[in-house]
Structures are given as C-alpha cells and as structure tokens.
Design a protein that fits this description.
single chain, about 325 residues, alpha/beta, 7-stranded mixed sheet, 9 helices
Length: about 325
C-alpha cells in the first residue's frame, strides 16, 4: 500500500470517530510544547469562539520505548483517536465527512521514550570504577613514586606517575581506556537525550540550557533538571496537523500546527492517563505555547464540618 492510498484509507476510517465526552484527572505534571506555522490563523465567530475546522486522522503509529509497555500497546489507533477527538472538539476541531471540504489531516503518534541506561548502572561506568580502584590500590601498595613521567603519551590517568613501573603503567592505561569508554557512552547518552528532546518538544529547553553551562551553578542546575526529565521514561502523544487540501490536490506536506504532550511513565498507566493528558494539552491545540510548559495539577481544599470545641482553659 503506497503512502497516498494509506492516507486515504486512514482518512476514511477517521470519519467514524466522534467525540464521546471522555474525561480524566491526572495527578502528574503534563509537559506540552505547541508550535504554529507562520500564516496559520484561527478565525473567530461574532461570539468570540473559534470558527470550526474539519479534520481527518492519520495513523502515525506506536513508538515503543526500551521495554515492552503493555499499557501503551493496549491502545490502538482508533482508541487513541477516540480519546483525543473530545479535547479537539473543545477547540472547535471536528471530524470531517467530506474529503472535498476537510481542512486538516491530523497525524497521530504515541508511545514511550527510549531512555539511556543510568550512568551508575552502565557497564562502562562499572569498568571505570574498577579500573580506578585497581590503580589506586597499586599506587598505595607501591608507595611514593621514585620519579615522574615526563611524557605520558597523552594518558590522562598516567600523568605524574612512574611509568617505569610496569604494574602502575598497566593500571594507568587501563584506567584511561575505561575513561575513554565512559566518555564515549556519555556522548551516546547526550545524543539520545537530544532525540528525546525533539520528540517531546523539550528542544527549546534543551538548547537554551546547553548554551549557558559556563554561567555557573544555577545554569548547571537547570541543565540537570532537563536531563532528569529526559532520562525518566515518558508517555507521549504528538499531533501534527497538515493542510489536507494542499496534500490531496498538490501532494505537498504543509504543516500548520503541531502539539506534543507527555507525562512520566513511572507509576502511570497510559491507557488511563491519555484522556487527562489530552484534556490538559487541548488549550494549546492549534496555538503556540511559546516553548515548553508544565501543566501542574489543580489543587483542591476540602473543608470538614465545623464542630464546636470545648473550652479547656483551667483558669475559668
């Protein structure tokens, strides 16, 4: 099946999707990033509400994380589409019935992020620890060096050590090799974090903090906040709205808006949280969030029944 036929089939399938009033309440923070193409403007009716726009869904597909997630896999495309249709309707986006007048093709992607292995659990980190411990043990056992190496051939660990001692030289170079592996793994981790930042819509936060690392502890703390969120597996949904008429007539992909929203997967169930995630993120459907925003759950206070308290003052 070629791409054109697949889009038409999915578009026809989306005609059966109707808003069903699905609601939910998540106790977790929902991260949202939404962008709008230049020139895309939503028109308003005399009463101030948005002018309705019709759409058809396209199946982007499930993107699996490191491990098989049953809760994300349990959601079919139609299940995800049905759940998202209600929040879309709140923003006056409705399923279309006529391909000749539909305005949008909304591609739907969902899944879990692939996160790197924590540094303290990686094989490279464990090897580096062992190599450093071995080097320190040998240095302590050999006592102070009789001389220092003037040329350590670029070796980081072997500098200022007596390389004429075979045991020290061997342990030092082993530590350097382990350090090189750890550095290479850190670079792989950075690339994975950067990919996740692009998928989740964290790219603005990722880029802004990477430029400020030399500014001090506050900038480093902000960078660590980004890393902590990216390296904590997250459920996500990506909606990408294209101009349907331009696509169907001219075969050109004209992206009008996109919204990316996510929550951490830990202690959550995607099939149960999706409705709440979409409902919170819906305020940004078709509009810009001006970067990444975190939507904190609303707080509630319950007042119990007022009861009189007996006077316990012993002086009365």
């Amino acid at each position: 099946m070629n791409a054109e036929l697949r889009i038409r089939w999915i578009a026809g399938l989306a005609l059966a999707v109707f808003a069903t009033g699905l609601r939910g309440q998540s106790d977790d923070i929902v991260a949202v990033s939404s962008k709008v193409a230049k020139g895309y403007v939503r028109h308003r009716l005399p009463d101030g509400s948005f002018q309705p726009e019709n759409y058809v869904f396209g199946e982007g597909g499930l993107m699996e994380g490191n491990a098989r997630d049953v809760t994300a896999q349990a959601m079919t495309f139609l299940g995800v589409a049905h759940t998202i249709a209600y929040p879309l309707a709140r923003q006056k986006y409705f399923p279309g019935k006529n391909p000749k007048t539909n305005q949008l093709l909304i591609m739907v992607y969902w899944g879990t992020t692939r996160v790197p292995v924590p540094a303290n659990e990686s094989a490279a980190y464990a090897t580096l620890q062992i190599a450093n411990q071995n080097l320190q043990s040998i240095l302590q056992a050999q006592g102070p060096p009789s001389g220092t190496a003037k040329n350590a051939a670029g070796s980081l660990a072997a500098r200022n050590m007596n390389l004429n001692n075979p045991m020290i030289a061997s342990a030092a170079y082993a530590a350097d090799a382990a350090l090189g592996m750890a550095i290479a793994e850190n670079r792989i981790t950075d690339r994975q974090n950067e990919r996740n930042a692009a998928i989740l819509g964290y790219d603005s936060w990722w880029n802004s903090t990477s430029d400020d690392l030399a500014l001090g502890p506050a900038a480093l703390a902000q960078r660590q906040d980004v890393i902590d969120e990216l390296e904590d597996e997250r459920y996500y949904v990506v909606l990408m709205a294209y101009d349907w008429q331009t696509l169907s007539r001219e075969k050109q992909h004209n992206l009008l808006w996109e919204t990316r929203f996510s929550i951490r997967s830990r202690h959550n169930d995607f099939s149960k949280e999706l409705a709440a995630m979409a409902q919170k993120a819906s305020r940004y459907f078709g509009s810009s969030s001006d970067g990444l925003v975190h939507l904190v759950p609303e707080g509630h206070v319950w007042w119990g029944e007022a009861k009189p308290v007996a006077d316990t003052d012993s002086n009365k």
